[in-house]
Amino acid sequence: MRLQNKVIIVTGSTTGIGKAIAKRCVEEGAKVVLHGLEEEWGKAVLHETRGDKAVLHIEDISREGAAERLVQLAVKTFGKLDAVVNNAALVASSSIHTTDPSFLRKILEVNTIAPFSLIKAALPYLSEQKGCVLNIGSVNAYSGEPNLLAYSVSKGALMTMTRNLGDTLFRENHVRVNQINPGWVLTETEKQRKKDHGLAEDWYKDLPSVYAPAGRILWPAEIAAAAVYWLADESGPISGQVVDIEQHPFIGRNPPKDASTIKTSK
């Protein structure tokens, strides 16, 4: 039980990567604050985590006061707070031609400012426990795909924040801040997104090797397994680190011109 008795907030945990992380945390002995927008999905995850090990909060993470409400729910329900997983994110296609300032602000509010607000609200309690923050970013943080401009900008900003706070908060508060950058992950929403784009029901079973050398893309459970290390005490004093989790080197890997344009990463 690598997370025995720890109390962890996992945002965006009613589906996908967040759901996998929350379930793995409970399996490792933690108590979890589940969060998301989909109440029905959230209740299903709550049932899967046996109820007494988790509590559910449904709210748009970018709403004023949402961060404080999540933190207070954790402390009121479980008596403390050891860690925060900033996983909730808004993934939306956009390019320089389709991105206006209003749209960019919306993406930044959810993907960058909301994680900052949650870290700030949680900091007094994380300091008491000498706890940690794990931000879930994206390999798109380095430059991103042509049709993911706003999203990529938001994840790049998140990565800079992780490195900045990973230094300052560890020195000043003994709170570690690290980040995982997943590559392309087969979540429920990713399956649906590609179907909405006109692909076949089983599109993920036949992918170009340039995107999936292993013959498949990543599973949420594989990201969750990696998350446990950063949330557990075994990661020791390591802070301010960003780890890419993908099956090939992302930077500098240029697909051939005839490769499918199917890809959209986490």
Structure description:
The protein has two domains: 7-183 and 220-240, Rossmann fold (3-Layer(aba) Sandwich); 186-217, no CATH class. The protein is 41% helix and 13% strand. The chain is built from seven helices and seven strands; from the N terminus they run βαβαβαβαβαβααβ. It is globular and about 50 Å long. This is NAD(P)-dependent dehydrogenase, short-chain alcohol dehydrogenase family. It holds the Pfam family adh_short_C2. Belongs to the short-chain dehydrogenases/reductases (SDR) family. InterPro entries: NAD(P)-bd_dom_sf (IPR036291), Sc_DH/Rdtase_CS (IPR020904), SDR_fam (IPR002347).
Summarize the structure.
This protein has 266 residues and is an alpha/beta fold. It is built from seven helices and seven strands.
Offer a few descriptive terms.
266 residues; 41% helix; 7-stranded parallel beta sheet; 2 domains; alpha/beta; globular; Rossmann fold; 7 helices
Per CATH, the superfamily of the largest domain is NAD(P)-binding Rossmann-like Domain
Strand content: 5-15%
State the shape: globular
Low-confidence stretches: none
Strand order of the largest sheet: 3-2-1-4-5-6-7
CATH topology title of the largest domain:
Rossmann fold
Span between termini? 28 Å
What class, by secondary structure content?
alpha/beta
Spatial extent as radius of gyration: 18 Å
Tell me the series of helices and strands, N- to C-terminal.
EHEHEHEHEHEHHE
CATH class of the largest domain: Alpha Beta
Protein name: NAD(P)-dependent dehydrogenase, short-chain alcohol dehydrogenase family
Family: Belongs to the short-chain dehydrogenases/reductases (SDR) family.
Organism: Parafilimonas terrae
InterPro entries: NAD(P)-bd_dom_sf, Sc_DH/Rdtase_CS, SDR_fam
